[in-house]
Amino acid sequence: MKFFRNNLFILLQIFTAVIFYRQFFFLGKLPIPADTIVGLYHPYRDLFSADYPSGIPFRNFLITDPVRQQYVWRKLAVDQLKQGLLPVWNPYSFAGTPLLANFQSAVFYPLNILYLFLPFSLAWSWQIVLSTLMAGMAMYLFLRNLKLDSPAAFIGGVIYAYGGFAIAWLEWNTLLHAAAWVPLALLAADKLTTDKGRKWPLVLSACLLSSFLAGHLQVFIYGFILVVSYLSYRLIRMEKSRSKHVKKAVLSFGIFILLSLPQALPTLNFILNSYRTADQSQLSEGFFLPWQNLIQFLVPDFFGNPATGNYFGVWNYGEFIGFIGVGGLVLAISSILLLKDATVRFFAAVSLICLLFALPTPAAALIRNLNIPFLSSSQPTRLLFLLDLSLSVLAALAFQRLHGTVSGRHRALSVSGRPLLFILNGMAVLFFATWLLVLVPAITSGQLPPPNQISLRNLIWPTSVFMLVYIFLVLFIFLKTEYVRKIFLWLFVVLIITDLLRFGWKFTSFSEPGYLYPESRIIKELKSDRSLFRIMSLDRRILPPNFSVVHGLYDVSGYDPLYLTNFALYAAAWDRQKPDISPSAFNRIVTPQASDSFLADLLNVKYILSYGILDNPNYSFIINEGETFLYRRQDFFPRAFLVNRQVVVNNAQEAIEEMYDLGVNLRLTAVSEGDLGLAESPLADNESAQITAYLPNLIKIKTAANQSRLLVLSEIHNPFMKATVDTLPVKVHRVDLSLTGIIVPPGNHEIQVEWKLL
Question: Which of 143-147, 393-397, 420-424 has the lowest mean pLDDT?
């Protein structure tokens, strides 16, 4: 009993998580939006078409990214690690792209240890569960260190773990992990300035490193700025031994920077060679938090909800939701008005700064226009992470004030009762004004437009919650019987938890394990071909970018905020079907459609997936499932081949122009920027290039040549690529605008191409 009494609120955190994830624990469903795979995309939909002609119903179309990006990248990385390989390269998307350097693959994240002991989908699910638990527990420990009672720390932890930001990004399995370590880092920062122990600089380094490795750079950077600011604030307020604590802080940050280099350097290299450095196109609408979306702090689904298919607001819902519960918002605002200690001032300032730069204010516009690396192009709405964190702390501090008065000190409570009543009445006016705003068309014209009908329905629950909050807190303020007041205070707590859990359940997907990338007949047909080839889909509903990773199929498409500039140039000219490599319409999602182009031949595209029948004499029909058809292209180049001629150009634009002039003649001619010093002569029958091994990070090729030849490898040229000829290092050339060229000497040789971090 003593154990339960001493750890009651930690156990309540666990109990709350079990209730939230009840479908995982009791029904065997996974917290993965796999229902969108079989509900939205072919050929998976075709597997279930007999029972579900319109596709399997899915929970939330907005959260397809986890199964299109994070899940497949992490699975590929884990699979390579289990094979004893460092997961440097992903050969399955964008005709080849960095994997470890892709920050979101989170290769080095400590909790990846789960994948060594559990099946991947189960380990992934447990990571998601743990992200919620860790966020709540970390906030609980931080607040306890601020001398808050366990109930107040518990409330702060629940609000942080189940608030709008946490729920909206939960199933990405990266953002909440990055955010979960921040309260622990704040705790370590506190201890570093107050505790004489030597462990806290190391603890701070470990927390920062774990947040960094969790897989979301923007959340980490915002969290890092918060931790540095908080630590600086504490140090400035110190009166003694400040220099000693500054040295400890510098040591901690130095250790973190040193340990982060194995991830940071490859990622920086990737960023410098990625197309995003040239692509800063952002939609003005939705880049900042729209002013009208502030109403979502009161009524989260005022503009509808993508999970119910009726969202009508600015795109997108997940970027704008900072909801912390109606009761949580009452507490957070109360703390700003009622409490005056240093911690409140700090987190109140953080909240205001976050709103200042998340909303379309002049200050936020200035940051964007200054073109500050990373910050200017980053989505400012992600500041809702810091806003929710700060509001969670403020709410806990306010609850501490309320909870501390349940001890007969009624006079102390009456002092704070008036401001609290003022806040409650102010929020009541806001709710009344919101109802009036929604009902105005019905009052003036007798008809309520469909958007207003959605808002009206979604006002009922939060208004009901607020009415109960109002009643509970008013009774708590004015009743004098202590145990009765405790009852109303705990009813208030239950109401906060219920409000947040209902919000989370509505948005979060839980799916049957069998919905995770099931293999259809078409996929099995493609996998049965043991030769090296690439595929391309002519319809975005069919095998969307990155899905090929799970099946081990090489695709020319890809979906990632970062992709190599060399591929971007190639895809731009390919999609336009003319020698134009200026920035294309592709942004994150690259899906070339020109299947008849010689550029498809050059990239080793053998199979075409189409929605419906194709009438093309150059394609051979293989198989179809429902409306998904698989065709084989007649003309495609091998993955590696020798050429007998070189055309020298001065720049990339000249290269693509020459390539369009040559067309299919690129099978024997290569275009390069700079003379490679090769003599031109026809290829003899005994000259060849044959791939003998093709691994994710390594290609082995046997060549036979009568003179020095250029080996063209249909792999995107990139800075991670190294080559040897009979173990001797050789230069890797960029040829045919974006591909790889290696000079091989006469005779029989073994060429090795490897992808390395640096």
Answer: 420-424
Contacts of 666 (CB under 8 A, 6+ apart): 598, 601, 602, 637, 659, 736
Crossing angle for the helix pair 342-358 and 362-369, to the nearest 10 degrees: 70
- pTM comes to 0.94
Distances (CA, A) of 179 to 82, 160, 263: 28, 10, 18
Confidence of residue 279 (pLDDT cuts 50, 70, 90): very low
pLDDT of residue 339: 60
Q: Which of 753, 758, 756 is nearest to 695 (CA)?
A: 753
User: Comparing C-alpha atoms, which of 362, 384, 377 is closest to residue 293?
Assistant: 384
Rounded to 5 degrees, what are φ and ψ at 723? -135, 150
Place of tokens 């450095």: 277
* pLDDT tens readout for residues 317-339: 999 999 999 999 999 999 877 66
Domain spans in the chain, listed from the N-terminal domain onward: 2-30+108-271+292-507, 31-107+509-628, 640-755
Provide the pLDDT for residue 405.
62
As a whole number, mean pLDDT of residues 209-219 equals 98
Pull the structure tokens for residue 40: 């939205």
pLDDT at 412: 39
Neighbours of 232 (CB within 10 A): 13
- Looking up tokens 């990625």 gives 274
Beta bridge partners of 590: 558
In this structure, are residues 749 and 701 in contact, taking their beta carbons and an 8 Å threshold?
no
- Tokens 């379309």: give the residue: 360
Beta-carbon contacts of residue 640 (< 8 Å; ≥ 6 apart): 689, 690, 691, 699, 701, 711, 712, 713, 714
pLDDT the model gives residue 624: 96
Q: Give the whole-angstrom CA distance, residue 706 versus residue 747.
A: 6
Distance between CA 401 and CA 487 in Å, rounded? 16
| Mean of pLDDT values over 415-431 | 85
Write the CB contacts of 180 (distance below 8 Å, at least 6 apart in sequence).
Answer: 131, 134, 135, 138, 211, 214
Q: Which CATH class is domain 640-755?
A: mainly beta
* Burial group, residue 491, by CB count within 10 angstroms (0-12, 13-18, 19+): middle
- β strands within 462-527, DSSP E: none
| Buried b or exposed e, range 128-164, using 16+ CB within 10 angstroms | bbbbbbbbbbbbbbbbbbbebebbbbbbbbbbbbbbb
Per-residue pLDDT, 410: 39
Read off the pLDDT band of 208 (50, 70, 90): very high
What residues contact 243, with CB distance under 8 A and at least 6 apart?
none
